Amino acid sequence: MWLYEAGIGEARAALVQDDRIIEAAIELEDDSALKVGLVARARLVELLPGRRGRVTLDGGDALINHLPPGITQGASLTVEIVREALPESGRAKLAKTVPSDSTPCPAPTLYDRLVATGLPVLSPRAHESDALEAAGWSELLDEAMSGEIVFPLGALRLSPTPAMTLFDVDGAPPLDALAIAAAHAVARAIRRHGIGGSIGIDFPTIAGKVQRGAVAAAIDESLPPPFERTAMNGFGFLQIVCPRPRASIPEILRADPVGAAVRATLRTLERTPPTASRRHTLPASVHARLMARAEWLAELARRTGVVHELESA
How confident is the model at residue 59 (pLDDT cuts 50, 70, 90)? Predict the structure, then answer.
């Protein structure tokens, strides 16, 4: 079952199984963003080698692959977004598009994507028991921000980098058992946090081809396809490549930690009983950002029927 919340500043969802989150997603409130599935008219503003180029459309620029033969710079064409822009330190990676013969249409929303899975979608109200939190929402956000993921027998350190997302495995011997448990934990983390692209795992060094094969088999058993992987090398390193249509939850949160804190604060305030104190002291950075979003404060008041008194720490 999916739990879905149309929050203030973001929509959020979690696939819950046995009272635990096994998959999660966050969609930021940004009407101008180029989302996967958007089909729109665009103009080719730059030709690049290999039938590639850069296009501009409402919402910004994007890269394009598989350009039609003979197309010239300045031409108009219909494109479909196949990968959203990805946040990185310094400069974000542009969204990616391909030419399309489809009729222009908006991208499916997060809620649309959930419905398309065919699984039940439940949208708990703010005054009801917090089913998302009961399933471990705050724990998931903490994992994404800190990178610390604990599992039986050890712990993982998750580190997004421009080249790939890295997992470092830490734990005590026996190393064969630790590595297999870590492989299952990494697979669960990849799904929980929506991690795609190149993923590197630094396991403890395992002696023996059979033992290393057992670790790779644990990945195959736990990680839903599609993906590709290498074998574990003699130094304990294994690489996975998964589809990457959009940013992972760690990338979203770490790209704007203050914004993430603001949205989490709004979620908390929305669930504060009307009879509780209306005065709240917030970190200075969170308070300043929130004061700059009058529309979010107005929406909070509309939803709760209360005007909160927010002070800066």
Answer: confident
